[in-house]
Please model this.
Amino acid sequence: MTISAEVVSVAGKLGIKGVSRVRARVLEGDDRGKIITRNVVGPLKKGDIIILKETGMDTESAFR
Model:
């Protein structure tokens, strides 16, 4: 099952492979309305819609 999310902000680029750290608002499913942080490959900007495989929360200890 795939879930769509809207990019709220792009925090920055990670490395040279085109990976970006983004915050996205989940648009459907049980987690609708939650804002989650994900690494995304490829060009994107605020307002883009991305497709997520899952919406489980990551451990964010590495980014504090």
